[in-house]
Write a structure and sequence with these properties.
Strand order of the largest sheet: 1-2-6-5-4-3-7-8-9
Number of domains: 2
Shape: globular
Structural class: alpha/beta
CATH architecture of the largest domain: 3-Layer(aba) Sandwich
Distance between the termini: 39 Å
Number of strands: 9
Order of helices and strands: EEEHEHEHEHEHEHEHHHHH
Largest sheet: 9 strands, mixed
Helix content: 40-55%
Number of helices: 11
Strand content: 5-15%
CATH class of the largest domain: Alpha Beta
Length: 281
């Protein structure tokens, strides 16, 4: 079901102080919780995509909502990381792992390749937002993409630029964020990488407003997120007893069949536990 709200009608949306009318599918956080935007190029390197995924995964495991634009590349990797980070979490009523802001109509997902991802976001308790109603034709103009970026940054408490070419649309998100008073972080890359040029450009032009992203914990500390808020948000996101036991059995050399049978879990849940162990130990 699609709802229509002005940003002044909802506690979470009120963080976007410019004011707007938004069409919404899915759930918004019941209370304002810390939110980080992760954005970047549609053509990331393997390093960039993996960084976006892992960062989103770790943020959600700490009770932080991840917001992005559902574009190909970095945006999609961030949404997927957030979804996977929430998969193993126990129930936490009202927690929204990820929010996608579209430049197209709320029911006309662009790009079409991410239609399935949008449905996964909704199924996981996330939300899809747009300034445009259902009947908006599915043809996105450049100015709509730029307008969408201001909402992504405006709803966030901090913005991470993972990879971006020089003078790219992604850089516009950073510039909106700076105008809105949001801290901006860039993922450092090699000087010779085309997709690092935009990040390095932002750092060079705005050394007083742009910081280098290294770890999730340092980002949360740098943005002065209250420790109590983190604990309240993430209290129900601690690994379950089953997850802990499964990891112990994997480390002990048990087979997938043995683990699934003993813990009475399905193949999909076990695969997710194995992925988490591979990425983060």
């Amino acid at each position: 079901m699609t709802r229509c709200l002005t940003t002044s009608e909802n506690d979470y949306l009120r963080h976007f102080t410019e004011g707007a009318t938004l069409y919404i599918r899915g759930a918004l956080p019941e209370i304002r919780n810390f939110t980080v935007a992760i954005v970047g190029t549609r053509k990331p390197t393997e390093y960039g995509a993996r960084t976006a995924y892992k960062t989103a995964y770790e943020l959600v495991r700490q009770g932080v909502t991840v917001i992005s634009g559902l574009a190909l590349g970095i945006d999609a990797a961030a949404h997927r990381g957030a979804l996977d980070g929430a998969t193993l979490a126990t129930s936490n009523t009202g927690f929204v792992p990820t929010i996608a802001v579209l430049a197209s109509g709320v029911n006309n997902v662009t790009p079409r390749q991410n239609q399935g991802l949008s449905e996964q976001i909704l199924s996981a308790g996330g939300a899809i937002l747009s300034e445009y109603p259902d009947e908006k034709p599915n043809s996105v103009k450049a100015w709509q993409l730029l307008a969408r970026n201001r909402i992504v940054s405006g709803l966030a408490d901090a913005v991470i630029i993972v990879e971006a070419a020089a003078r790219s649309g992604t850089s516009s998100t950073a510039r909106h964020a700076m105008k809105q008073g949001r801290p901006v972080f860039i993922v450092p890359g090699r000087l010779t990488d085309v997709m690092s040029a935009g990040c390095l450009e932002l750092l060079e032009e705005h050394p007083d407003k742009v910081r280098i992203f290294t770890t999730v914990n340092k980002l949360l500390g740098a943005t002065r997120l209250n420790d109590h808020e983190v604990k309240v948000a993430s209290a129900s996101l601690e690994p379950s007893c089953i997850t802990t036991k499964a990891k112990d059995m994997i480390r002990a050399g048990s087979t997938s069949t043995e683990i699934a049978k003993r813990l009475e879990i399905g193949a999909a849940e076990l695969a997710q536990i194995q992925t988490e162990l591979e990425l983060f130990g």
